[in-house]
Specification:
single chain; 141 residues; alpha+beta; 2 domains; 5-stranded mixed β-barrel; elongated
């Protein structure tokens, strides 16, 4: 069997490391699937996707001058049609924020109430800045 880049092969997971998985291929060859080539989603723990002894389809990406084989599982999988891939959700379809992120106080309704609230918030922030400046000035002297 000829091992040329782009060939789809079937192999068995021999061992798993933090950086990828070693795959036994036909004719006694062994190749490496890097963790970034395991799935089309982000992989933090490769053991959640692969187990030793599992049979997988892989695509041969390349061979180096020392005869090492670079493999990919995600490129060997059939890609879904463009219409089958869900589009990004619009703002209306997104779930509401969790209750813990909602404002604590009720929002004022009239302009005067909004202005009072703004002034109170502003004065609070200014007093905090002044206290901080007073503390840092006394240290510099």
């Amino acid at each position: 069997m000829e091992f040329t880049p782009g060939t789809i092969l079937e192999g068995t997971v021999r061992s798993i490391a933090a950086f990828g998985a070693f795959i036994n291929l036909p004719e006694g060859k062994t190749g490496l699937v890097h963790i970034s080539e395991v799935s089309s989603t982000y992989v933090t723990d490769i053991r959640q996707h692969l187990t030793e002894g599992q049979t997988v389809k892989v695509k041969l990406l390349s061979t180096d001058d020392r005869g090492r084989l670079s493999l990919s599982i995600k490129q060997a999988e059939e890609r879904p049609a463009a219409s089958a891939v869900p589009a990004r959700r619009s703002v209306e379809e997104r779930p509401a924020r969790p209750q813990s992120f909602q404002p604590v106080r009720p929002q004022p309704e009239s302009f005067e109430e909004k202005l009072k609230q703004f002034m109170a918030d502003s004065n609070s922030k200014i007093s905090g800045v002044r206290q901080y400046e007073h503390k840092t000035r006394s240290r510099k002297r």
